[in-house]
Amino acid sequence: MKSRYKLVVTFFIVCVFFIVNSFTVFAATGFSKKVIHPENQVGEGEALNLLMKPGQKQQVEVEIENYGDKETTVLVSLSGARTNGSGVIEYSKSDFKKDKTMEYDLSDVVKVPEEVKVPAKGKAMLVLDISMPDVEFDGIITGGIQLMEKGQEENKEKSAAAINNKMAFLFGVTLFNNQKEVQPDFTLRKAYAGQENYRNAMLVDIANTQPMIANLRTLNVDITNKGKKDVLYTRKKTDISMAPNTLMTFPISLNGELMQAGEYTAHVVLKGYGKEWKWDQDFTVTDEQADKFNQSDVYVVQERGINIKLVITIVVSVLVVIIVIYMIYRYITKKKVSKKTSKKRKK
What we know:
Blueprint: H1 2-29, E1 31-35, E2 48-51, E3 57-66, E4 72-80, E5 82-83, E6 89-90, H2 106-109, E7 110-111, E8 115-118, E9 123-131, E10 141-149, H3 152-156, E11 168-176, E12 186-196, E13 199-208, E14 214-225, E15 231-242, E16 247-253, E17 262-272, E18 275-285, H4 287-296, H5 298-304, H6 308-346
Parallel strand pairs: 2-11
Antiparallel strand pairs: 1-3, 3-9, 4-8, 4-10, 5-6, 7-9, 10-11, 12-13, 13-16, 14-15, 14-17, 17-18
Transmembrane segments: 310-329
Domain WxL Interacting Protein peptidoglycan binding: 31-147
Signal peptide: 1-27
């Protein structure tokens, strides 16, 4: 019993040692940030939510503290909020699109330096320069600011097993002139064929046309042949959030099937705020598009297995080579025979 007790105690001490040591290393090499809220901050939380006047200019500071023994450089990246294909708002840098109804992106009104140098065991200030539009607007301008220790990009390429104590932080920034309620509205911008993660899909671009964060209950999309009722492909999504004045490119998977050229109709129903938005939009998939997407869809290629066209091409090429070799062989053989025959006649 005593030996078991000693073993348990020893194991516990070792675990505590590694945990404490991990925190020590983390604390000795990382950095932290503290958003300093000005008087016009609205609400609780770390994110900046600032009520500002039209044309107002303001500087807001973020304190960055370096725990390491060497000077560090913190990279600063500012991005307007966007909506991804799953109906989730992205506050970090992305390729998701804004809608043409967006009047002001966060980068239009907030300027930040590309980087901030922080001395060893010291602090430095990141300064946000905010310049509000001269004309008052309803709704919000929103996005995020990411802080990442320089060198983080290179570390991402290293082995996942490597210990990496570098840090990255993201905090939101929201600016507004008033707190008037904005009425939600949406529109279907486009329906078309494409791919999502290298898989064939039908896509619909839905726009949140208002300067508000929209929280929707359901989105349902059915794809049919034009003029037909039978549903070919369908997708339903619940609990959707959309950033102000942004596009959500919503994919409807073909479930590994070959894309077929033809005319289609997208039937879209969006529900939320006690309302319902409905759209029907026709679109065409050309032969060229279908071939292009089928060639690049890795799942379609795998499921098709053997590429018949490629096999036929190889077989024909091999046969041609064999025939050519055979003809050359016959020609050389005949030449040799004719030489022997002519020599015998001379004798």
